[in-house]
């Protein structure tokens, strides 16, 4: 028996899409390569723009221990510092906790989960998708959503080509114990990258950074690069000298690029990082994934009710994606050029310290409107 919708990937975008579709009584299968709960390489700061929506679907952020964050600090490679109040603000919560709670909500609504499973290929014949897994199973659906993250083997199976980017990054994440204000999110520059720290639940902090892959290779590894490059920033030196690191090994993602992607490929609707990756410097990747999932779910519902044709579904989703996110992603890429370089980061922070009113519109440009 087929499904109305199959979702590939159970991160924020996939889980929110499954919840929205299940609430409308569609038969949804979500295929995820891991088993909940699990950690992901992610900054774990969520803009308040999606807070009312998350509460509306039954997520009790206070019960989960989410922290309230309303201040932002930015430092240069040599330790110049800039601090400002975040007008919209956000909250901190680990993906380990957040995704697991959304998984529980989705299950309670009747979403079917296939965990510890990879998707090897997707074929569309006439109006039916055939989704093949590494467990030698094939599932059928009327619609497929791709929400499998920044990069996957499935991209090769789908012959998904991305524009070349000369600079590739490595993403690294730790959970730490550290003496740091819970209402502050800080972004510390170092040569070839930047590192964010913010509070999450249980008196822990998320430490997540993006580093030029060339620097990691030059240093001989992650820990060596941290000592050689990151600890040139005195704020990062203090963290690495005085924090308690809670993971046995860091979580690492290789080959991260920020070139534009397609929102629809081979009739598959892409959401979250699968459709477009915003630079961590600009933040709000999680709120973008949530908002895109809702947009996709609403349009899929119209399609399944035969209010729109498939070509209209794909065109409308692409238009909505571009209208909501294309400029935000572009602005993020431009911001990234100002940081990770000693001269540019010093210049940018010095200029913003002298003209502080410029910072608020820059921050506002990377955020969306409140989502109800």
List the keywords.
372 residues, alpha/beta, FAD/NAD(P)-binding domain, 9-stranded mixed β-sheet, 8-stranded mixed β-sheet, 12 helices, globular
Strand content is: 25-35%
Quote the average pLDDT: 89
How would the global form be characterised? globular
Structurally, the number of domains stands at: 1
Structure summary, number of beta strands: 17
Tell me the structural class.
alpha/beta
Distance between the first and last residues' Cα? 35 Å
CATH-defined superfamily: FAD/NAD(P)-binding domain
Q: Looking at CATH, which topology would you report?
A: FAD/NAD(P)-binding domain
- Provide the gyration radius in Å: 20 Å
CATH class: Alpha Beta
Low-confidence stretches: none
What CATH architecture do you see?
Answer: 3-Layer(bba) Sandwich
Number of helices: 12
For the sheet with most strands, the description reads: 9 strands, mixed
Q: Write the H/E string, N to C.
A: EHEEHHEEHEEEEHEEEEHHHEEEEHHHH
Q: What percentage of residues falls in helices of 4 or more residues?
A: 25-40%
């Amino acid at each position: 028996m087929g499904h109305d919708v199959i979702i590939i990937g159970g991160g924020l975008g996939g889980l929110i899409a499954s919840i929205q579709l299940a609430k409308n009584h569609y038969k949804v299968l979500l295929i995820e390569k891991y088993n909940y709960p699990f950690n992901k390489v992610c900054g774990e700061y969520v803009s308040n723009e999606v807070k009312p929506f998350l509460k509306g679907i039954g997520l009790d952020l206070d019960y989960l221990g989410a922290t309230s964050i309303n201040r932002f600090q930015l430092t240069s490679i040599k330790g110049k510092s800039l601090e400002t109040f975040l007008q919209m603000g956000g909250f901190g919560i680990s993906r380990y906790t957040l995704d697991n709670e959304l998984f529980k909500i989705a299950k309670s609504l009747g979403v079917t989960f296939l965990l510890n499973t990879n998707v090897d290929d997707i074929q569309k014949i006439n109006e039916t998708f055939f989704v093949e897994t590494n467990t030698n199973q094939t599932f059928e659906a009327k619609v497929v959503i791709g929400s499998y993250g920044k990069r996957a083997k499935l991209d090769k199976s789908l012959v998904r080509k991305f524009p070349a980017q000369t600079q590739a990054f490595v993403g690294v994440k730790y959970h730490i114990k550290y003496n740091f204000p819970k209402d502050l999110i800080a972004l510390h520059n170092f040569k070839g990258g930047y590192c964010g720290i913010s509070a999450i639940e249980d008196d822990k902090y998320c430490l997540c950074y993006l580093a030029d892959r060339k620097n990691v290779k030059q240093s001989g590894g992650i820990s060596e690069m941290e000592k050689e490059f990151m600890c040139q920033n005195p704020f990062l030196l203090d963290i690495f000298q005085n924090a308690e690191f809670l993971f046995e090994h860091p979580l690492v993602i290789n080959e991260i690029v920020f070139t534009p992607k397609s929102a629809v490929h081979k009739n598959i609707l892409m959401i979250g990082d699968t459709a477009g990756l915003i630079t961590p410097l600009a933040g709000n990747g999680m709120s973008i994934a949530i908002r895109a999932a809702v947009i996709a779910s609403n349009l899929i519902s119209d399609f399944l009710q035969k209010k729109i044709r498939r070509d209209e579904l794909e065109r409308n989703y692409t238009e909505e994606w571009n209208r909501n996110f294309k400029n935000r992603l572009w602005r993020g890429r431009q911001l990234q050029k100002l940081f990770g370089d000693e001269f540019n980061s010093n210049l940018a922070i010095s200029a913003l310290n002298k003209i502080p009113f410029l910072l608020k519109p820059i921050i506002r440009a990377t955020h969306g409107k409140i989502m109800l």
